[in-house]
Write a structure and sequence with these properties.
Oligomer: single chain
Helix content: 25-40%
CATH architecture of the largest domain: 2-Layer Sandwich
Number of domains: 3
Strand order of the largest sheet: 3-2-1-4-7
Shape: globular
Strand content: 15-25%
Distance between the termini: 50 Å
Order of helices and strands: HHHHEEEHEEEHEHHHEEEE
Length: 284
């Protein structure tokens, strides 16, 4: 049944096609199509909720921040701060990426996605984040308005952004389960350790993450890493030559000397834009 589940994630594959192949391979002793369909549905219903949904190979990456925080102690002052754990996972394989950040502001959302895509070695076709204000500037069931920087980041990798809908728990069941697994198998084992920097914490997180991805999943007869390499990864998009560079945007009016002022610096623009309002893209 795990084989059927893996094959159904591939584009164009149906249960009817898999039954035809199965019947041809076992002509004298095989289930009828209705019998096989019933057995597969019963097996699928025994999986975790997030695994029961049909996730196409390489199609979608889900992302969110965990609710649990990681304590960081300043080695010099003893001051305690709390880091947030960013979690991203692929839809079919549940292959997971996790990293601690100092906040849940836009730069951390962007860095989390850029680093996750780099970790996967390929880009998904769709990114489905939760519905945070840092990303979704105006919530809408059909066409939410997205932050310009996040939209540009996704376009850089050829991805479409479809945020999870408000009060639609099935939209984010996959990432909620990934967050739960990260809290259970990454944060909980590290609860009694003292970290003096984010780098130190992320080194420990990477070790636990490798363990989680290589752990065999109940009911799937394979690990997240194996499912990712065999199913998700071949169907994902190739990476661009360079990772996305964080940028912000602002409006500015062109002065009479055809220059615009941006954070105390002046930049020339075509003279025909004098008096016009233009959009400025700023990188670090």
């Amino acid at each position: 049944m795990a084989y059927l589940h893996r094959e159904l994630a591939k584009k164009g594959v149906t249960l009817a096609l898999l039954w035809e192949e199965y019947a041809a391979e076992h002509p004298q002793d095989h289930y009828s199509y209705p019998q096989l369909a019933r057995r597969y549905r019963a097996w699928r219903d025994g999986l975790e909720v997030s695994m029961r949904q049909v996730h196409k190979a390489g199609e979608r990456m889900y992302s969110d921040f965990a609710g649990e925080k990681l304590r960081i102690v300043d080695a010099k002052t003893g001051e305690i701060s709390y880091a947030s754990l960013f979690v991203a996972c692929m839809g079919f394989s549940s292959y997971t990426y996790a990293e601690a950040f100092p906040s849940e502001q836009l730069p951390c959302w962007i860095a989390g996605h850029v680093n996750a895509i780099s970790f996967f070695g390929a880009a998904p076709h769709i990114i489905t984040p939760d519905n945070p204000k840092a990303i979704v500037t105006r919530a809408c069931r059909y066409e939410p308005e997205l932050n310009r920087t996040f939209s540009e980041m996704a376009a850089h990798y050829g991805c479409v952004v479809i945020p999870a809908r408000v009060r639609k728990p099935k939209d984010k069941a996959k990432v909620e389960n990934a967050v739960l697994q990260a809290e259970r198998w990454i944060l909980a084992p590290l609860r009694n350790r003292t970290f003096f920097s984010l780098d130190e914490a992320n080194q420990a997180i990477r070790e636990r993450l490798a363990w989680l991805n290589n752990r065999r999943m109940r009911g799937m007869e394979a690990s997240r890493s194996e499912l990712f390499a065999g199913v998700d990864r071949p169907a994902m998009l190739p990476l661009p030559t360079r990772p996305y560079e964080y940028a912000t945007f602002k409006r500015a009016r062109v002065n009479i000397d055809y220059h615009v002022e941006v954070e105390g610096h002046y930049y020339s623009v075509p003279y025909r834009l004098v008096g016009e309002e233009v959009e400025v893209r700023m990188t670090r």
